[in-house]
Amino acid sequence: MSGLRYVYAVCRPFEAALQAQLAGVAGSPPTAVHHEGLVAVVSTVPAEEFAETPLRDRLEDRSWLTATARAHEQVIDALTTVTTPLPLRFATVLPDDSAVRILLETHAAEIRAVLDRLAGRVEWSVRVYAGAEPDAEQAGHFAGRLHEELRAAAEDARLHPPRILKVTEAEEGAWGRNLLDAAYLVPRRQSGGFVEMVDKARETLPEGGVKVHLTGPWAPYSFCSLGGAR
């Protein structure tokens, strides 16, 4: 069976080279499909693994899913260092380059509008976790105050539903209550100041066990959407 195109993201043309040894999904290096001032970053993947029916089965395989998601994220992370990508939904697979160009053509106006809005910006994720015996009122107040401060410093913010997560394996069971799960859209040049705000907030943690978990900079996943292709 012939190869298919796994599509990671769309972006404007960029001059900087991606990492020479960067391997994408299925070990295939990412390449670019150009169309009228837009670029889709893709890899060639085997149809016997990524066609609709086998892909559906693969998505139930936890080890395969983890490895594929990691490869997907590696390409998006590499793109984020050289441009502002508009990430597509995980496991977006199209038949060939012609279908990729049709995707770009169909959504061209929407893609350009989103890329213009997000140019030069990155996403930072901030989560606040409660320990085993925190003061619920103080911890909740801290999380709310932190969100308001960070939202004021960012260009945009998204609140995600609280979820039960552990920060690290060593802390399993100790940080199960998520008080804040938010994403912030920040100009890349202002990221240093944003990180400093989070660091200063850690100096005012309430007693009883509260942890602030910061990750990024990421591609602006929480602030972009692309019609039916996202």
TrEMBL record:
Principal cellular location given in the protein's record: other
Matching Pfam families: GvpL_GvpF
Localization terms from the record: Gas vesicle
UniProt keyword RNA-binding present: no
Stored InterPro entries: GvpL/GvpF (IPR009430)
Domain of life according to the entry: Bacteria
Key words, A-Z: Gas vesicle
Matching PANTHER family: PROTEIN GVPL 2
Family: Belongs to the gas vesicle GvpF/GvpL family.
Protein name: GvpL/GvpF family gas vesicle protein
Organism: Streptomyces fragilis
